[in-house]
Design goal:
Helices cover about 0% and strands about 35% of the residues. It has no helices and 25 strands. β24 and β25 form a beta hairpin.
Length: about 190
């Protein structure tokens, strides 16, 4: 099923059973397997393959040639009866040529740097880079890097406020200038720090 106003460009292969939300952009030379779920307002750039087990929430950006895997122990002609679920939470962005190993969660509004190899789940608002990927900072929902200077609170230039709960947890305090309820990230153990 493909939602309203979603565009699927040339040489893209979308298999039967896929769910793609509204207002998405699926660029050239993409491949999407049948048990993939894609939310609304998602951008999938050229050269991306989404394999069974990938769940993409709303407002996600997947850069060119991002690589997903869905088998921790691949062998030729060996098929799994069930694939580990890889979840891209709302608003996260994956830079060009990033590699995401199977069964991970990329947190809300997190940002994965170009070329990063993500081997562990990533918390909400985290900025990760490198091979293997490591957290190098925090980002605002608008995409700007957040700078904590000794305190627990920080305000982005766009006006959004964030609170550092612990060394590895940041939460939004306001969105569009309005207070928000605390949201606990559902990132499994083995989280990237």
């Amino acid at each position: 099923m493909v939602g309203k106003r979603t565009r699927i460009w040339a040489f893209a292969h979308v298999l039967t059973g896929v769910t793609i939300g509204e207002d998405c952009n699926v660029c050239d030379h993409t491949f999407i397997e049948g048990r993939v779920r894609i939310g609304n307002r998602v951008t999938i750039k050229c050269g991306v393959s989404l394999w069974d087990g990938v769940v993409v929430e709303d407002d996600v950006f997947i850069g060119p040639n991002v690589v997903f895997t869905n088998d921790k122990h691949p062998r030729s002609r060996k098929r799994l009866s069930e694939y580990p679920e890889t979840v891209l939470k709302q608003g996260c962005s994956l830079g060009a040529n990033a590699t995401i190993l199977p069964g991970l969660t990329i947190g809300r509004w997190a940002m994965i740097g170009a070329g990063a190899v993500v081997t562990r789940s990533v918390p909400d608002f985290a900025l990760v880079t490198g091979t293997p990927a490591r957290r190098v900072g925090w980002v605002c929902q608008c995409g700007e890097k957040l700078s904590y200077r000794g305190g627990r609170m920080v305000r982005c230039e766009c006006g959004e406020e964030y609170e550092r709960i612990s060394e590895n947890v940041v939460r939004a305090r306001s969105v569009n200038g309005k207070p928000v309820q605390a949201v606990t990230s559902a990132v499994p153990s083995g989280e990237l720090t």
